[in-house]
């Protein structure tokens, strides 16, 4: 169904940090439960209940029900005692979590009552269709071509990343397998040339030999062949551990992983990438693929995907080709902010106009602070890469666990699938056994319902998710500006807050340092203790008034990219080399409320006091 | 908290096929929602609502809320139109799905409101503890030793199986890495000996070189080394496609996978396994591991794990060792039926007594029909294998998606982990970053809550889950016996039902054949059409009165193991060789109500009529 979608009011889409929309939540919850119960009752209404009023009146029934009630008392107590208050409008500035969309919580709950398993169409016709639709919607959000691209929901970003490297590995090996099975199609090509064929060339070639496809696949990397020939997997130096796990699991191995330096603002250095690829080429070592990150989990930075794509085009002319996977687990949904009401990527010079029309930012100054051509160009170029990880459970504001992957060319699916592509439902173009085309097997239909419903309520463009992204970004910039001039007086010492770098996205990193302190270890200790008192570690969660998270930037992972920052706040290069790491406080700004200037101002005063208190406790420990 | 657990009445634990317990479900649902809302309101009660009464009265709010209501009308319609009626007490005899436990649906929904992410303790203290507890409970269900074993929840059985082969691969390669890094510890050992060290020996050896652990790990299979040296991965001939995917993904490759024949009752032939391992040993090809299946997805059969373990002991004395992974995705929870009130494995001669005391079967005859020493011994021996896949979302009656894996020796974790084991919370013995010890990253705390709550309500022994297993098994045997003498008169033809084999578990396979028909293709067509009319394919789901599923046993996967059955129902060996496959109807008997003799008899009459109708339609098409 196509709806006339009204101007979206984000306030109607969350339970509310004080449960303001509990009435609406319960209304829809009970509606969905009642409609489910009615469905049960009316399937073959001639069938009678098997649990009778007498059963329900028996002591064994009552005892069991009371036992269950006791367990729920305990569950409720545990959840209320040991959960994080992400829902707060302005006190939680830590881990990547917040309020999730009321419609997805409700959709998940509703669909769970039917318990569809999207592994097979047979067991979940309704939610399988929703997953297929949601996959195409995510493709459209990446400006992948309709009809040529495909996507699906998976457990999380690590699984999506693993599936990405699985695609890359099997695809890269196909030309070597073709050489064994159908050598006439790659006649005259050297091994180097075979290992540098583009994805398009490989897929076009596979199209020419449909009868031999199974045999070619059987001799591809899936057989165990060629794993050591496929070359290097290049990732940014700020390497997320999921990429190390992936390379381990997929068998190309950690020895095939190389980290490319990031610059002082934590973006992969594309010049260094080029240099390294040329060095490898000189040794006839191919590049299996390059990972660009859209929203790094520690800094929220967005790699220059446009420059990566341009580099590939340049090198392709020289006979060097590499697969590009974009890890946009975190930042993927943010592409919605760049799509206009018709889902077209907005020309740069029209952005102000479109944002204004859709009330994406309440404060144009903050919009201008955030939006750079670099960020814009990076998002634009995502449509040109082979595969992209996007987590609905991050910027999709959908409850855990919902990851996703999209592929630019649906034919890539053959490289990893376990059945011929004709195993599809007639007309529907939906696999009868989705499990044969993806990494996982059984999977909740409820997740698909949660994602599908969220996409229906909030279109994946500037009118829907784009607005939510704007709210989150604006909140992040309010927090960033709040931190910039922040000073505290703690037991006679002045403690100054130093934000790390202007964020590309909604992640704000920062540190506290005592004025004049030149001992980096001491500063690290201060920030670590501050984190302890601003988290579950040393606070009573429910009475703590300010939450944050932390991370370490250490030389083994970051090289010297933090040096500029560390020097800027008063430490010497020697001190950096001595201590070898800097402890960073980290705030993912997801609150859908904190962009509002009045709300933010209210909380700014409160959290300033709370930070003061937590700093006082932290200082006692260093 | 430890409860006085009353005698469990299963009727109090499900919503009921006619929504009989809708009152109890809604009572607890609203309790949990209200307690969550109260928690939001009372976290820093001085903070005011950010969504005001005026906001809620605005037209943008109302329009957005109405838009959301419209989307839920569509969602509800889609779910009610295109979902399967698994909930029915006696009409659904197909795919592995049914009513799930009311407490887990409720726990999932409740915990989802807090949206914990169990990837990191920091973001989910409560549900991380629940996951750790649930893991230990699953270990206990396998009689793995407390304190020495470990387990966790994962997305599904395919992921658990992949993690199992990841453990096996990395462990098997460690001795080769030790030879590079600390050769003095494996002095004098040949490569063959290194590749045949037992898991215990490897782990003990690793314990001796803690300082070199990281270096050894870096040279293990995770580096990309040795993948072609580790030997064969042996699986039963009825190979589930998840094992082919796993070998592909993990890089040992499909060429390393060998299928061991099953016998005519679809169990791995342990004599053939021995023969094959000896043949390989004669060529100095090691065995990476052997997969035993507890509950095959197509036949519900249970491999002779005891004989597999005994074979390993015998061969170990000859210097041949292999890892054993048990794929009990389906049958894992059934081990609860063999554990007494104190979680001890029940001696065989005490089973009748314990079952009677706990009312596990209502009909002792059916219990005797099912329970064989073979099945008992197979379950008993599970405690001796390295790792086991167990899916809570199958026989745990927990909604999708909830898989799990347990490992006998917690030290195995080091072979795949990405951080030193000291990255644990003090005292809690729970990883600070679970994602560094498992295949996935982000994962729903709600899943852990659902599993934990189910385990709290239903202990994992004969008093809890064991009773539920008994109900399911008894229902399966009622259905099996119902099919055994079933004949239909369709347009003057007699159609006879032929159950496949006496099931080890709650899966009943069967076919229909026209009396006197000797054309196997014709029979296959009949059964396929019968499936079409008994599923979403050619029936209107909601008005169809009998559901089943189907599968094909074809020579490429099954060899000639179906021949005995095929001959038994009147086809010649030539006919089998000509057609090369038999289409099988397949019923997973999960209904928690169909064990009741009165309920079953009521439905037997009804589904007999429904089968008659669907056969009439099917016959028209052949």
TrEMBL record, chains A, B:
<dbReference type="Pfam" id="PF21391">
    <property type="entry name" value="tyr_de_CO2_C"/>
</dbReference>
<dbReference type="InterPro" id="IPR021115">
    <property type="entry name" value="Pyridoxal-P_BS"/>
</dbReference>
<protein>
    <submittedName>
        <fullName>Tyrosine decarboxylase</fullName>
        <ecNumber>4.1.1.25</ecNumber>
    </submittedName>
</protein>
<dbReference type="InterPro" id="IPR002129">
    <property type="entry name" value="PyrdxlP-dep_de-COase"/>
</dbReference>
<feature type="modified residue" description="N6-(pyridoxal phosphate)lysine">
    <location>
        <position position="394"/>
    </location>
</feature>
<dbReference type="InterPro" id="IPR049373">
    <property type="entry name" value="TyrDC_C"/>
</dbReference>
<dbReference type="GO" id="GO:0019752">
    <property type="term" value="P:carboxylic acid metabolic process"/>
</dbReference>
<feature type="domain" description="L-tyrosine decarboxylase C-terminal">
    <location>
        <begin position="475"/>
        <end position="615"/>
    </location>
</feature>
<dbReference type="GO" id="GO:0030170">
    <property type="term" value="F:pyridoxal phosphate binding"/>
</dbReference>
<keyword id="KW-0663">Pyridoxal phosphate</keyword>
<dbReference type="GO" id="GO:0004837">
    <property type="term" value="F:tyrosine decarboxylase activity"/>
</dbReference>
<dbReference type="GO" id="GO:0004058">
    <property type="term" value="F:aromatic-L-amino-acid decarboxylase activity"/>
</dbReference>
<dbReference type="InterPro" id="IPR015424">
    <property type="entry name" value="PyrdxlP-dep_Trfase"/>
</dbReference>
<dbReference type="InterPro" id="IPR050477">
    <property type="entry name" value="GrpII_AminoAcid_Decarb"/>
</dbReference>
<dbReference type="InterPro" id="IPR015421">
    <property type="entry name" value="PyrdxlP-dep_Trfase_major"/>
</dbReference>
<dbReference type="InterPro" id="IPR022397">
    <property type="entry name" value="Tyrosine_deCO2ase_bac"/>
</dbReference>
<keyword id="KW-0456">Lyase</keyword>
<dbReference type="Pfam" id="PF00282">
    <property type="entry name" value="Pyridoxal_deC"/>
</dbReference>
């Amino acid at each position: 169904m196509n709806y006339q979608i009204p101007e979206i009011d984000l306030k109607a889409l969350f339970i509310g940090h004080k449960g303001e929309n509990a009435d609406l939540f319960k209304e829809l919850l009970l509606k969905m439960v009642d409609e489910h119960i009615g469905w049960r009752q009316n399937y073959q209404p001639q069938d009678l209940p098997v649990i009778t009023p007498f059963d329900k009146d028996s002591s064994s029934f009552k005892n069991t029900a009371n036992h269950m009630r006791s367990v729920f008392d305990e569950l409720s107590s545990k959840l209320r005692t040991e959960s994080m208050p992400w829902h707060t409008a302005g006190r939680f500035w830590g881990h990547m979590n917040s309020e999730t969309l009321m419609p997805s919580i409700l959709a998940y709950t509703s669909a769970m009552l039917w318990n569809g398993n999207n592994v097979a169409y047979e067991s979940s016709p309704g939610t399988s269709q929703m997953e297929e639709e949601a996959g195409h919607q995510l493709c459209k959000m990446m400006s992948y071509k309709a009809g040529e691209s495909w996507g699906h929901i998976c457990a999380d970003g690590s699984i999506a990343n693993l599936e990405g490297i699985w695609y890359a590995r099997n695809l890269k090996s196909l030309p070597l397998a073709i050489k064994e099975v159908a050598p006439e199609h790659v006649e005259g090509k050297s091994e180097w040339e075979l290992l540098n064929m583009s994805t398009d060339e490989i897929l076009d070639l596979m199209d020419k030999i449909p009868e031999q496809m199974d045999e070619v696949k059987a001799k591809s990397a899936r057989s165990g062949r060629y794993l050591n020939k496929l070359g290097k997997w290049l990732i940014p130096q700020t390497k997320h551990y999921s990429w190390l796990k992936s390379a381990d699991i997929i068998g190309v191995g950690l020895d095939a992983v190389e980290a490319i330096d990031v610059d002082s603002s934590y973006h992969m250095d594309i010049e260094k990438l080029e240099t390294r690829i040329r060095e490898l080429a000189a040794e006839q070592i191919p590049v299996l693929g390059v990972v660009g990150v859209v929203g790094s989990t520690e800094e929220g930075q967005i790699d220059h995907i446009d420059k990566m794509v341009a580099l590939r085009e340049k090198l392709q002319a020289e006979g060097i080709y590499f697969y590009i996977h974009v890890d946009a687990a975190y930042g993927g949904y943010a592409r919605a902010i760049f799509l206009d009401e018709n889902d077209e990527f907005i020309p740069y010079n029209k952005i102000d106009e479109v944002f204004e029309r859709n009330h994406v930012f309440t404060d144009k100054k903050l919009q201008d602070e955030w939006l750079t051509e670099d960020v814009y160009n990076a998002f634009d170029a995502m449509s040109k890469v082979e595969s992209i990880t996007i987590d609905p459970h991050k910027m999709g504001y959908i409850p855990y666990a919902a990851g996703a992957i999209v592929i630019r060319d649906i034919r890539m699916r053959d490289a990893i699938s376990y059945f011929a592509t004709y195993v599809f439902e007639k007309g529907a173009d939906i696999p009868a056994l989705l499990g044969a085309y993806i990494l996982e097997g059984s999977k909740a239909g409820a997740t698909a319902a949660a994602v599908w419903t969220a996409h229906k309520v909030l279109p994946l463009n500037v009118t829907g998710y784009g607005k939510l992204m704007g709210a989150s970004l604006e909140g992040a910039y309010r927090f960033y500006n709040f931190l910039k001039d922040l000073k505290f007086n703690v037991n006679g010492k002045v403690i100054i807050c130093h934000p790390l770098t202007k964020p590309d996205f909604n992640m704000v990193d920062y540190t506290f340092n005592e004025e004049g302190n030149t001992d980096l270890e001491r500063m690290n200790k201060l920030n670590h203790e501050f984190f302890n008192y601003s988290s579950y570690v040393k606070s009573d969660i429910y009475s703590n008034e300010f939450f944050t998270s932390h991370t370490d930037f250490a030389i083994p992972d970051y090289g010297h990219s933090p040096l500029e920052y560390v020097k800027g706040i008063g430490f010497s290069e020697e001190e950096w080399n001595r201590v070898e790491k800097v402890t960073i406080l980290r705030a993912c700004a997801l609150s859908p409320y904190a962009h509002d200037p009045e709300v933010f101002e209210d909380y700014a005063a409160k959290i300033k006091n709370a930070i003061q208190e937590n700093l006082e406790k932290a200082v006692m420990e260093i």
